[in-house]
Design a protein that fits this description.
single chain, about 270 residues, alpha/beta, TIM Barrel, 8-stranded parallel beta barrel, about 15% strand, globular, binds 5,10-methenyl-6,7,8-trihydrofolic acid, binds 3-methyl-2-oxobutanoic acid, binds magnesium ion, metal-binding, methyltransferase activity
Length: about 270
């Protein structure tokens, strides 16, 4: 195989379970557009999440609630056009699945049909059992999401660590088992104690992907713009910044502005 014709081994929902059984951790990041998705796919990411965090990161909303199904499909289709290798999971946005299981299935079908994504993610446990079942019956892979579920932010009021109390921890364990029994291929655990997340990961055969859930789980997910250091306001303890893109980009923009104003740009080689 020549270098220019590099072959990519596509990640499937099955490869994730195999990775868990072989002890290989799963690396997942969000992406919302073609250019960023191309870069993260070629870097070798396992799973790309087209998160409803696009509502915050792309559109500047305070919460994930306003983003629509059409907007999620727009982001997801851009990401799908970029990928050669990663599994693409798409968040079902708030309001597209909570009313009834038929609506949930219709929304999931729209995502699969109109974006070309490979799976959908829904927030919640036993409350959305019937919706998860229906989507799975249609042959659409489902990823669960428990713990801090941002679409329910107004029910909780804060983004604090979830399931610190025994009762809530017990419900989370039951919900995780339920999602596995229903046939979900993986579960995201967001902002829960390390020990609880570890127990859940050990009790399931499907992979548990953590965000702020410690190192006892089967993989990690972060919002791409957070790990690149593009945002300065969002700074939870669980976030590791791999670049200081905010500073670097600001420097580049300032230099460009200076160059334009000083007539340094464009120079003789940069014009016709
Ligand atoms: N940019 C971005 N990154 C994310 O990880 C993300 C989003 N947006 N939007 C949707 C959800 C919301 N998420 C969140 C939101 C807040 C915290 C958090 O820890 N916030 C505060 C602490 C709040 C508190 O303790 O009351 C912090 O330390 O920044 C964590 C995950 C994760 N998701
Ligand atoms: C933070 C992850 C898990 C997510 O759901 C999102 O980015 O929308
Ligand atoms: Mg989300």
């Amino acid at each position: 195989m020549s270098a220019s014709k590099k072959e990519y081994k596509r990640i499937t929902v099955k490869s994730l379970t195999e990775m868990k059984s072989q002890g290989e951790k799963i690396a997942m990041l969000t992406a919302y557009d073609y250019t960023m998705a191309t870069i993260v796919d070629r870097a070798g990411i396992d799973v790309i999440l087209v998160g409803d965090s696009a509502s915050n990161v792309m559109a500047g909303h305070e919460t994930t609630l306003p983003i629509t199904l059409d907007q999620m499909i727009y982001h997801a289709s851009s990401v799908v056009r970029a990928i050669k290798r990663a599994l693409v999971v798409v968040d079902l946005p708030f309001g597209s699945y909570q009313s009834d299981p038929k609506e949930a299935l219709r929304s999931a079908i729209r995502i699969m049909k109109e974006s070309g994504g490979h799976a959908v993610k829904l927030e919640g446990g036993t409350e959305i059992k019937e919706s998860v079942k229906r989507i799975l019956h249609a042959g659409i892979p489902v990823m669960g999401h428990l713990g801090l579920t941002p679409q329910s932010i107004y029910k909780f009021g804060t983004y604090t660590v979830r399931a610190k109390e025994e009762q809530e921890a017990e419900k989370l364990k039951q919900d995780a088992l339920l999602l596995e029994r229903l046939g979900c291929f993986a579960v995201v655990l967001e902002k829960v104690p390390n020990q609880l997340a570890r127990e859940v990961a050990e009790s399931l055969t499907i992979p548990v992907i953590g965000i702020g859930a410690g190192n006892g789980v089967d993989g990690q997910v972060l919002v791409m713009h957070d790990m690149l250091g593009m945002s300065q306001e969002f700074s939870p303890r669980f976030l590791r910044r791999y670049l200081d893109m905010h500073t670097q980009m600001t420097g580049a923009f300032e230099q460009y502005i200076t160059d334009v104003k000083s007539l340094d740009f464009p120079n003789d080689e940069e014009q016709y």
